[in-house]
Amino acid sequence: MTSTIVVGLARLIAGTGVRWSGCSPELRQRIYFANHTSNLDALIVWISLPDAIRKQTRPVAARDYWTSGKLRLYLANKVFHAVLIERKNVTPSNNPLELLLAALDARSSLIIFPEGGRHDGVEAGPFKSGLYHLGKKRPDVELIPVYIDNANRILPKGEVLPVPLLSSITFGAPLPINDGESKKDYLERARVAVNALRNQ
User: Across the strands, what pairs with 100?
Assistant: First the structure.
């Protein structure tokens, strides 16, 4: 019930238009990787998925943000079933890559933001290496680029209350890592793939 209410409210606020370009919504294990400009980004990707797919998909989110209040913690744990990762003070016991691999091994799909933090530009900035390592270690999981448009105007950085506006999201074609492709080359190709969805 709570999940249904959250999805309904989020759709009312964000008015998300969804496009599937190069792939279709399927019940298969995927890593959705997107640009990151707002704290609403993970929610927007999550609510854009059909119900059955959403139930097997877990957003990856910053532990420090989502544990800073009882409501956020409840939503992260009980509604989104988020994988909460450390951005600072990383140790072998809380290594983000190991937590994400464990979630994949449990047959979850993931929503990640390879920039590692929010950016103000309309284009995604440089990607950190996690996406590449996940793709190399779990090659059977599809890597799907995603572009989120206008979410930063709904909940700008530093704001608490969202402003109802129309956002849109575009899911692109799977982007596997090619044989012999370097980390640097793949991450740049993935970043370009996300940005290219802006004009589709």
Answer: none
Domain ranges of the chain: 2-199
CATH class of 2-199: alpha beta
Q: Which two tokens stand for residue 45?
A: 């990707």
What is the pTM (predicted TM-score) of this model? Answer: 0.85
Task: Give 10-residue mean pLDDT values along the chain (200 residues).
Answer: 55 63 94 87 87 94 84 86 86 87 97 81 84 97 91 49 61 96 97 90
Helices 41-48 & 2-14, crossing angle to 10 degrees? Answer: 110
